[in-house]
Design a protein that fits this description.
The chain is built from 4 helices and no strands. It is an all-alpha fold and 114 residues long. It has one domain.
């Protein structure tokens, strides 16, 4: 994995958890709006919308650079529209990055898979 691909995956990972948190907070604000006089939906809607758009931009960049299959790209997209999906995407992206680093070090040391 080259440095640009690793950077794309890292950017996607860094925005996935905040996007998931903002989604959950937006859901709580929506409930509070309907049950109390507290209305933070316009603010949280804007914050979540911004983070969602950033996630989609980073998702498209990671898909392009990592050469994901359609299934992998679809998985990460679906994770962006589920309330807690960003946490699962973050964990899987972390594992993918660690596996890529291990494979890169093995190639650099000349270790061949048997």
């Amino acid at each position: 994995m080259d440095i640009k691909t690793a950077s794309a995956l890292r950017r996607l990972r860094l925005v996935s958890a905040p996007e998931a948190v903002s989604f959950l907070i937006l859901l709580v604000c929506s409930v509070l709006k309907r049950t109390t006089d507290f209305n933070a939906v316009p603010v949280m809607g804007a914050v979540h919308g911004f983070l969602f758009v950033v996630y989609l931009i980073f998702w498209a960049d990671a898909w392009n650079r990592a050469k994901w299959s359609l299934g992998t790209a679809a998985f990460y997209f679906v994770m962006s529209v589920l309330p807690t999906g960003g946490f699962f995407a973050d964990r899987r992206l972390k594992r993918e990055a660690e596996d890529a680093v291990i494979a890169s070090r093995a190639r650099a040391e000349g270790v061949v898979n048997a």
